[in-house]
UniProtKB/TrEMBL annotation:
It comes from Cristinia sonorae. Residues 75-393 form the Peptidase A1 domain. Belongs to the peptidase A1 family. Gene3D superfamilies: Acid Proteases. The lineage of its organism: Eukaryota, Fungi, Dikarya, Basidiomycota, Agaricomycotina. The keyword Signal applies. It comes from the Eukaryota. One of its GO terms (biological process) is proteolysis. Residues 1-28 form the signal peptide. SUPFAM superfamilies: Acid proteases. This is Acid protease.
C-alpha cells in the first residue's frame, strides 16, 4: 500500500516514543489484574454461503494463522476507540498480534487519534488493511492511552465470521513485524498496558466461554484477564511450559502425552500451540487416522462447513466414545466425547444431516497439536510474554 513520507516520518517519531516508554515503565498505582468478559457466538452457516472451514490452511503449517476463516464460533470482546465508538464484535486471537477495527462500522478518528501510517495483515485467506492510528483504547476494565490500532477500510475472506468489527491479536511480542507498515514490530495491547504502567506483568489469562454439550447454548461467559490470571476460575496449580523457539512466532509448547481412551497414541513430546481464533480440535494427522481406523464406519468429511473433520457413524454416541487425554507437564487434561462431538441442535445451522455423528476433530498437520476454541473451552490458558511460557490449568 502506498504511503506518504509524512506518514513515514510520523511513524519513526512514534517508534522513538514507544521505545522510550519501554525503557522506563512507570509502575503507577492501579489495579494489578484487569478483567474483560467475552462471549462466543454461533455463526449461522446458511448466511455464510456454505464456505468450508479452511482446514488446508491449518494443515499448511507455516502459513499465517487464519483466525476468521476457521471459525464458526467466535470469541469476541468489545473495544472502545475512535470517535466515542464501541466495536462489539472484535475477535480474540492468540494467533496474531495487532489490533484493528472498522470491519463493519468505519473507524472515525476521535479526540485522541493520531494518524501514524498504514496497516496490512493477512490471515492465510484474506485479511485487512487501511490507515493506522494511535488512540486511547478501552477493552473491559483495561485502558491504554496510546495504542496502535488499525482502521480497516478493506477486509476480505472474513465472510464466515460476519459480523466482524476487528481482531484483537494477543500473540507473542515481536510477532507482528511489518504489519504496521514501516515498523519492525509494534507493542500489542498487553505490552502497551505494561508500558503505560497499568499492569505490572505482561501476563494474561483466557477462559473461552463454554457451550452446553447437549443444546449448544453458551453456558459460561469467557474472560480475559490482563496482568495475571484469574484464580477464581481455576482449580489446582497452573502448569507453565516454556515456549518452543522461535519465541516471537506463536504460542507453542511441548505436549507430553496423548491418549484416546486406553489407546496411548503418544508418549513422546510433540509440539502443540493454542489459537483462540481457530475453532477446531487439531490433532496430528496420524492420530486422526488412528482414531478413524479404531471405529468402524468413521470417515473424514469431504466438503461443506466441516470439511476435513472426523464424522463417526450415526450409531455412535457420546456414551460409546472414550475421552482424549492430553498430557501437559505433569497434568492430564481430559476432553470427554460430549465436548468433541458437535451438539445435535447445531446441525441445522451448520447444514449437517443426521447421517453421521459429527465431531470438531480435525488435522493440525504432521506431528503437532492445535488447541482451538473447542479444546480451550475445557482448559484455562495463560500467557507470559516476558517469561516466554504458556500456562494451563483445570477450569472450575
Ligand atoms: C448444505 O448441504 C448441502 C449438501 O448436503 C449442499 O448441497 C448445500 O449447498 C449446503 N448449503 C449451504 C448453505 O452450505
Ligand atoms: C484505504 O487506506 C489506505 C491506507 O491508508 C489508503 O491508501 C487507501 O486510499 C484507502 N482506501 C479507501 C477506499 O479509502
Ligand atoms: C521439547 O521437546 C523436545 C524433544 O523432547 C526437547 O528436545 C526440547 O528441549 C523441548 N523443548 C522445551 C521448550 O521444552
Ligand atoms: C455402527 O455402524 C457401523 C457401520 O456404519 C458398523 O460397522 C458398526 O458395527 C456399528 N456399531 C454398532 C455399535 O452397532
Amino acid at each position: 500500500m502506498p504511503r506518504s513520507s509524512v506518514h513515514k516520518m510520523r511513524a519513526v517519531a512514534l517508534l522513538a516514543t514507544c521505545l522510550a516508554v519501554t525503557v522506563s515503565p512507570s509502575y503507577a498505582a492501579g489495579p494489578k489484574i484487569l478483567k474483560t468478559k467475552f462471549t462466543s457466538t454461533l455463526v449461522d452457516i446458511s448466511s455464510a454461503g456454505g464456505k468450508a472451514l479452511g482446514f488446508s490452511k491449518v494443515n499448511a503449517g507455516n502459513e499465517p494463522d487464519a483466525p476468521a476463516t476457521n471459525a464458526i464460533l467466535k470469541a469476541v470482546a468489545t473495544v472502545e476507540a475512535g470517535n466515542n465508538q464501541e466495536f462489539t464484535e472484535v475477535l480474540i486471537d492468540t494467533g496474531s498480534a495487532i489490533l484493528w477495527v472498522g470491519g463493519e462500522e468505519a473507524y472515525e478518528p476521535g479526540p485522541n487519534s493520531k494518524l501514524i501510517g498504514d496497516f496490512s495483515i493477512g490471515y492465510g485467506i484474506g485479511g485487512a488493511g487501511g490507515p493506522a492510528y494511535t488512540d486511547r483504547v478501552k477493552i473491559g476494565d483495561a485502558v491504554v492511552n496510546s495504542q496502535i490500532i488499525g482502521a480497516a477500510n478493506a477486509t476480505s475472506g472474513l465472510a464466515l465470521v460476519k459480523p466482524i468489527d476487528g481482531i484483537l491479536g494477543l500473540g507473542p511480542a515481536n510477532s507482528n513485524s511489518g504489519q504496521i507498515i514501516g515498523f519492525n514490530s509494534t507493542p500489542t495491547f498487553i505490552e502497551s498496558l505494561v508500558n503505560e504502567g497499568v499492569i505490572h506483568e505482561p501476563v494474561f489469562g483466557i477462559e473461552i466461554s463454554s457451550l452446553d454439550a447437549g443444546s449448544g447454548n453458551q453456558i459460561t461467559t469467557g474472560e480475559i484477564t490482563f496482568g495475571g490470571i484469574d484464580e477464581d476460575r481455576i482449580v489446582g496449580d497452573v502448569v507453565w511450559l516454556d515456549q518452543l523457539p522461535p519465541i516471537n512466532f506463536r504460542w507453542s509448547f511441548n505436549v507430553t502425552s496423548f491418549s484416546f481412551g486406553t489407546r496411548q497414541l503418544s508418549t513422546d513430546t510433540m509440539p502443540g500451540r493454542t489459537d483462540t481464533g481457530v475453532l477446531l480440535i487439531g490433532l496430528p494427522f496420524d492420530f486422526l487416522f488412528d482414531v478413524l481406523r479404531s471405529i468402524p464406519g468413521t470417515t473424514i468429511v469431504s466438503d461443506g462447513v466441516l470439511g476435513g473433520t472426523l464424522a463417526f457413524p450415526s450409531n455412535v454416541t457420546a456414551d460409546s466414545l472414550p475421552p482424549f487425554n492430553l498430557g501437559l507437564g505433569d497434568q492430564l487434561f481430559e476432553l470427554p466425547a460430549s465436548k468433541y462431538l458437535v451438539p445435535k441442535p447445531l446441525y441445522t445451522s451448520l447444514n449437517l444431516t443426521e447421517d453421521f455423528t459429527y465431531s470438531w476433530l480435525g488435522s493440525a498437520g504432521q506431528g503437532s497439536f492445535m488447541l482451538g476454541q473447542k479444546w480451550l473451552e475445557n482448559i484455562y490458558t495463560a500467557y507470559d510474554m516476558e517469561g516466554h511460557r504458556v500456562g494451563f490449568a483445570h477450569l472450575k
